[in-house]
Amino acid sequence: MALVPDPVYTVTYTFQDETGSKATTQAYIRQGIVIDDVIARANALAAALRNVSNAQLTGYTISRGWTEDAPAGAGGGSRVERKGRTIWLADTYKTRIDIPSIATGQVLPDGALNRNSVQFLVLRAVLLTDFVGDFTDSRGVSLDALAAAYESYTRTTPKRQPTRKLA
Amino acid sequence: MWRLRVWFRDASGTTSYTGAWMRSPNETAIFAFVSALRGLSDAQITHVDVMRRFPYSSQLPSGRDRGISVLVHRAVDSGGPELDAFPMWVPESEIDAARSLWGYPTLAQDYASKAGYNIDNPAPGDGEPVSLDNEYPDLTDDYYLVAVRRNFWHRLLRDARAYNTLAMTLPDQQARRVRLDIRDLFLGVPMREVLERLDRIIELLENGGGANTDEIQQLLLQIIAALGSS
Fold it and tell me: What is the pLDDT of residues A56-90, one digit of tens each?
């Protein structure tokens, strides 16, 4: 059971013409090179695309994925609507990271998450200690403290409904 | 900032993801985060992705209806046999400009097909078919270019069902020729004539079982003749 990386970085370029119509095109860059080089190559291709297209190149997105090669299967009774909601502080701002289908053993009788469990301490260390500065809020400010952790529920969107619906 | 998403699937098959922001796509940090989530959730983690948007300062739209170029480039495994093809769409471009896109060997380094095979240094014009009467791409071509006018392509997409029906209505060999001709339309073809005849064909096909196949074939032959004379 391991996460297997996709063989490439995907670069998706977006265009917009004067009628407002938008279009995209994709290119791929081999993985195994540092991210700064990937950005440099995406930039180089962006410059070339700008020269060959009359539309405005509005930007591009670089993405990379990993796929679980041997999924062990979900636990019995697991439901992703049952979230473990964690709120983190980045400077004075808050950012949220939800944990789908939080294990019931992590939830205390009052609905709070057990912040002292081994598993939760690992998550806290990853976000705050082990990779200092890597995990941020959307502004790019590093996470520096835990503000709240509790069980929460969210409704399921139609697209994500179970494949088998019970009557 | 980079957006990290970790995707889950629960016992019912429902999927969901959780996201985190990162300063850089540090693989070690990503794997540590995923490992921590595994300990906290009883759902199955299926995949992980990370992405970042790089916007340009100028968002003013420009250009109009100049067509779309499609580059189809071969991809190989370190000088080995051809293993993959890499199609790339360039909106609002003219074919001469698009032809130069891959004309720089250094530019092509580290670009790959979706499956991860190398796009070797392409040589512009190497084996590239230059007209419909010339030849269709073959195994010796490094790449070839197709340009399709925007409106024409949109019409084909809009009625893809009729397009498929078109291929099935005709004898195999002729249907293949028509598909190749449509695929390989170059700028400069008298497009209005082609569109009018294709519209008529689609009308006939949409009438169901009453379609006059003789008339369809005649119209298609006219299209082929028009394409061949351009």
Answer: 889 999 999 999 988 778 888 899 989 999 999 99
What pLDDT does B44 receive?
Answer: 94
Alpha-helical regions (H) of chain B: 27-40, 95-99, 105-108, 150-158, 160-169, 172-183, 191-206, 213-228
Of the candidates B13, B36, B112, the beta carbon closest to that of A8 is on B112
Nearest CA distance, B153 vs chain A (angstrom):
13
B89 with A52: Cβ contact below 8 A: no
Interface of B with A in 61-90 (CB under 8 A): 61-66, 68-69, 86, 88-90
Q: Using CA atoms, how far apart are residues A75 and B11, in angstroms rounded to an integer?
A: 6
Partners of A25 on chain B (C-beta within 8 Å) are: 88-91
Helix (H) or strand (E) holding B17: strand B15-22
Torsion, Cα A45 A50 A56 A58, to 10 degrees, reads: 20
* Domain definitions of chain A by residue range: 3-68, 82-160
Weakest mean pLDDT among A147-161, B47-61, B67-81, B94-108: B94-108
Could you report the per-residue pLDDT of B74-120, keeping only the tens digit for each? 566 665 555 555 656 666 655 555 555 655 444 456 777 777 776 65
The tens digit of pLDDT for each residue in A10-34 reads: 999 988 877 777 778 888 888 888 8
> Given an 8 Å threshold on Cβ–Cβ distance, is B60 in contact with A56?
yes
User: Residue B128 is which amino acid?
Assistant: E
Largest CA distance in chain A: 62
